[in-house]
Amino acid sequence: MIKKGTKLYSILFNKCPRCHEGDFMVENNVFKLNKAFKMHENCSVCGLKYMIEPSFFYGAMYVNYGLTVALAIITFIISTVGFNLTLVQSFIPIVSVLIVTAPFTLRFSRIIWINLFVGFNPTKRGAKNE
User: Which of 6, 50, 76, 97 has a Cα-to-Cα distance from 109 of 20 to 30 A?
Assistant: First the structure.
């Protein structure tokens, strides 16, 4: 079970990395593409400023790259081993999977990135001090 206080809880449930109560993204539904990538400026519970410094989330591009490469490799293995597709034929499933999962990987990369730098601190709940 994923408990509050773990980084996995913050990542999977779109919660503030410090208090695990406030939402990180404005919209929880990934498929509402007009709002899917908008973040709150601060946590509504503890006040953590999500944009720690200018261009902070540029580092999330590296996380996104790792996620998409992993998805591409998994899709390639499934398409070649499971469906006996050639290298050229497996290109279509790989591109399809990457297009469909792009909203997920973009959101997850940002929340994973901030969780690398901000830890859970239960004493900051309701503090609104940053």
Answer: 76
